[in-house]
Amino acid sequence: MKYVFSCLILLVLVASCSKIEENNDPIIGIWNHTVKTATNTNKMVVDNEEWIFNDVYLGRFHGYKDGQVVYLTDFNWSVNGDVYIVSYPGTDFPNDFVKMQETEEGTILMRTEGKLFAEKQ
Fold first, then answer.
1. Which of 25, 43, 61, 110 has its CA 20 to 30 A from that of 94?
2. What are the tens digits of pLDDT across the range 17-35?
């Protein structure tokens, strides 16, 4: 019985000391998009959009109108090759498919159909 108990303690110690992989994907951070028209692609009346990507493949989306948050939701993100997929569970938002590009002004995310998605802050 002592042997089984010792093995269980050893197993717990080994499992709790395992190293968590570090995610240093370049998409991690804050991305902004200033909406030129009154309504964005998701039919929200906003003048600025912000995505905050974190290292556990989650994030938060903010929609602003006149500097005030008018829409807030969480999102999931994944990467398949060079295409990032942003999904918004619990909403009727369609998935966003974007690619990262470097420009003279900085790093941007472009929709796969060629429209600007966001610029890195």
1. 25
2. 666 678 899 999 999 999 8
